[in-house]
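Subject: sequence -> structure tokens, single chain

Hey, anyone have a minute? Need the predicted structure for the following. Not urgent.
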Amino acid sequence: MAEARSDTGYPAYAHQTGYRETPQPPLPPQSSSRRVAAGVLAIPLMIANGLGAATMFTSDRALSPALGVLAVLWLVLTCAVLAAGIGLLLRRSGVDKKAPMLLLGTTAALIAVGALTAFLREAAGPILFSAFFGLPIIILLLARMRREKAERAVLNKRA
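Reply:
Had a minute. Here:
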């Protein structure tokens, strides 16, 4: 008995007769390059500020209570910036608007604590640690949020 052959010359099987290719699901929106750059910059910011906070704890000068509180706050904000940066890298651009705001807020607070620590300690190191990577993060996120706002305004005019 001869096998039934398909157009391609291969044997045709019963389970292949009703086969239809299903369309692929749509891809999620890609993260913008500014969001990715801000998330990546959060990692060296954490390393630099972690080293800065460690030098405050291990310095020969005794810390006053105010400087001790600022050092702990600086270390906590450093960890928060790292967590927010990783969260920003893991989130897609169209899904979550809280991740950029969280990174923006923690970075701004870290720069403010660095400035206050530099003022009280009479040394420029803390503000340099904070501002060197912190200001580019703030600039990148503000530029991205401004662009997203302009895109939403254009979409609202069309609707």
